[in-house]
Amino acid sequence: MNEVIHVKDLVKDYHIGDIVVKAIQHIDLDIKKGEFVSIMGASGSGKSTLMNIIGCLDQPTSGEYLLDGEDVSKMKKNYYADIRNKKIGFVFQNFNLLPRTSALENVELPMLYDRSGEEKDATKLAEEALRKVGLAGRMEHVPNQLSGGEKQRVAIARAMVNNPAIILADEPTGNLDSRTSIDIMKLFQELNEQGITILIVTHESDIAEYTKRTIFMKDGHKMWDKPQKFVKAEQVSDIEMVEEAL
Question: Cα separation of 230 and 36, whole Å?
Answer without folding.
Answer: 10
